[in-house]
Amino acid sequence: MDIADQIGSFLFDLTVSNNFPVLNNILNISSQFNSQYGNYIKIGEKIDFEFFTNTFTDTENSLTYSVSQLPHWLSFSGTVFFGTTSKNDLGDYNITVTASDGLSNVSDSFILSVQNHAPIATTLPDVFLIFGHSLAYILPSPFTDPDNDTLTYTVFDVETGVIPFWMRFDKQTLQFSGSPKMDDIQYNATYKGYFRITQFV
User: Fold this and answer.
1) How far is Cα 1 from Cα 159, in angstroms, rounded to an integer?
2) Of the residues 15, 53, 157, 173, which has the fewest C-beta atoms closer than 10 A?
3) Pair 83, 42: CB distance under 8 Å
4) What is the pLDDT of residues 7-56, one digit of tens each?
5) Can you tell me the distance from the alpha carbon of 177 to that of 138, in angstroms, rounded to the nearest whole number?
6) Whether residue 79 has pLDDT greater than 80
């Protein structure tokens, strides 16, 4: 107040703003996950995945993270996903991560695919056994598995459903053995073997 009891005033504009959180498209979560695990997760595979802290940025505030569409076997804490798949978890999961500064949100999604692939068989050569000789034949790695799962083998004759009683098959070494006697086989008998492969997952 001046000596003349006059009051002066002025106006000014006050703007309160909030910068939105931003997704770094170069470091999107999908590319990070695929870089670590490839295009799919195998059955029984353990997941321990943490996305980079600069995947989402905010110039003013700290960020908190939440997820949606999270499968029951997968957990999330902070920026880390962890869990282990089972044979009941086959399928594709579209998981969304949301970053929030308390006022605004930004999200990014990635697909987590749990797959299992059947073993692949190769053609086996015919085996000829001269009567009076012993059979000692080891399978030359007839099957491969795209997922590197453990495989087990069973064998049987396609006509009888079992291998001849004089023949033995070792599932560990994949070796056939045996010594047929005169009464055990017919003249020029041919056994049409069939291999059944089983995956342990």
Assistant:
1) 114
2) 15
3) no
4) 666 676 655 555 788 998 888 999 999 999 999 999 989 999 999 989 99
5) 9
6) yes
CATH 2.60.40.1590 for the 22-115 domain, yes or no: no
- 149: exposed, middle or buried (C-beta count within 10 Å: 0-12, 13-18, 19+)? middle
Distance between first and last Cα of the chain: 87
120-200 topology per CATH: Immunoglobulin-like (2.60.40)
- Domain ranges across the chain: 22-115, 120-200
Taking residues 46-69, report their average pLDDT: 93
Of 122, 171, 125, 115, nearest to 142 by C-alpha is: 122
Structure tokens at 137: 């034949």
What sign has the CA pseudo-torsion 20, 25, 26, 30?
positive
Q: How confident is the model at residue 112 (pLDDT cuts 50, 70, 90)?
A: very high
Do 120-200 and 22-115 have the same topology in CATH?
A: yes
Q: Is the pTM of this model over 0.85?
A: no
